[in-house]
Specification:
InterPro entries: Acyl_transf_3_dom (IPR002656), Acyltransferase_3 (IPR050879). This protein has about 350 residues and is mostly helical. It has one domain. α7 runs antiparallel to α8.
């Protein structure tokens, strides 16, 4: 069942990212971490509910493909054709969800730069279902806790051995698993009533404590505690701290439906925007580039110009994302869901 308040959280996440891309909200990158935690929670829940079904792989990947691929298959060719200077190899890297590698290399299609986070999620979709399908719940918990312990260590090793670790630890999948792991762990723990009671009691404390810790570190050392910083403190621990705050927020909204925060994110306009948030995220770079050219903005775009562009970009992004969702993405997604559910029902009848 789709929870409207989670759509509201999606809107907040994509809104933070859009503000970040327009030189507002220096903490806007938090929106990406919120997306990661949400994705981990939702996908793990889907996989856990389907784990004992004979038709496990086909329906899952069909639904994922018909949800994720349609707008990407339009966006990448459009960007490639419009930019003229992009290399075909870069387009293929984004198409096969290797965007992080392209950004760290030639980055010949910077308009598609935000697809790096989509690549992280797709790598997760490829590997995590095997663990959920074949491992018991106790081992899943161990793996997820192990990931949360290992991630800061891996990033600190990168800081020690690589010249510019900030970009590597920001873009590449092996170093951005904190949010996905925490979201997945939340889904697994909420299956147990005892854990559910604990999380209900402590979710707000976790969100506030982790958020406060992040804020203190940011205020104390803002020069080094920010995205792409090469500092050991940022690279090692920031993503874990942010993800802890985000999982606290999500758990609180999930388990306290009557709370003020839950009612706020259930506001109809936020829910509506959340339903098209994928397009809002994907098409932002393309719309921003078109607006910049229309305004004859120099490159790199000055901060003041970025601020002005927001006035034009936001309504355009919403219109394009809505049209793509209504007339293109949603019909394909519905077809995939019907096809996948039909296959499962057919198998059940046959048995």
């Amino acid at each position: 069942m789709r929870l409207e308040r989670l759509d509201g959280l999606r809107t907040i996440a994509v809104g933070l990212v859009i503000l970040l891309h327009h030189s507002f909200a220096p903490l806007g990158g938090v929106g990406v971490d919120l997306f990661f935690v949400l994705s981990g929670y939702l996908i793990t829940g889907i996989l856990r509910r389907a784990r004992n079904k004979e038709e496990f792989w086909g329906p899952f990947y069909l639904k994922r493909a018909t949800r994720i691929l349609p707008p990407v298959l339009i966006l990448i060719p459009i960007v490639f054709l419009l930019t003229h200077n992009g290399k075909l190899s870069s387009a293929l890297e984004y198409l096969f969800f290797l965007g992080g590698a392209d950004i760290l290399g030639k980055n010949s299609l910077p308009i598609l730069g935000n697809l790096w986070s989509l690549a992280v999620e797709e790598h997760f979709y490829l590997l995590w279902p095997f663990a959920v399908r074949y491992l018991p719940k106790a081992k899943l918990r161990v793996i997820l806790v192990g990931i949360l312990i290992a991630e800061p260590i891996f990033r600190l090793l990168v800081v020690h051995y690589i010249k510019h670790p900030g970009d590597v630890t920001y873009y590449l999948t092996p170093f951005r698993l904190d949010g996905l792991a925490l979201g997945s762990l939340l889904a697994v723990l909420l299956e147990d009533n005892e854990w559910k009671e604990r999380i209900t009691r402590w979710s707000s404390t976790l969100a506030i404590s982790a958020g406060a810790l992040y804020s203190v570190l940011y205020l104390a050392d803002g020069a080094d505690f920010h995205p792409f910083s090469d500092s050991a403190l940022w690279c090692g621990f920031s993503y874990t701290i942010i993800s802890l705050a985000m999982v606290g927020v999500i758990a609180y909204v999930l388990l306290h439906p009557g709370a003020v925060a839950s009612r706020v994110v259930s506001w109809r306009p936020l829910v509506w925007l959340g339903a098209i948030s994928y397009g809002l995220y994907l098409f932002g770079g393309l719309i921003g580039t078109i607006t910049a050219k229309a305004l004859h903005a120099p490159f790199p775009i000055p901060v003041a110009t970025h601020h002005k562009m927001l006035i034009f970009d936001v309504p355009l992004i919403i219109i394009v994302a809505w049209a793509s969702f209504k007339f293109y993405e949603h019909p394909i997604t519905l077809w995939g869901k019907r096809k996948a559910d039909g296959n499962v029902r057919s198998e059940t009848v046959a048995v």
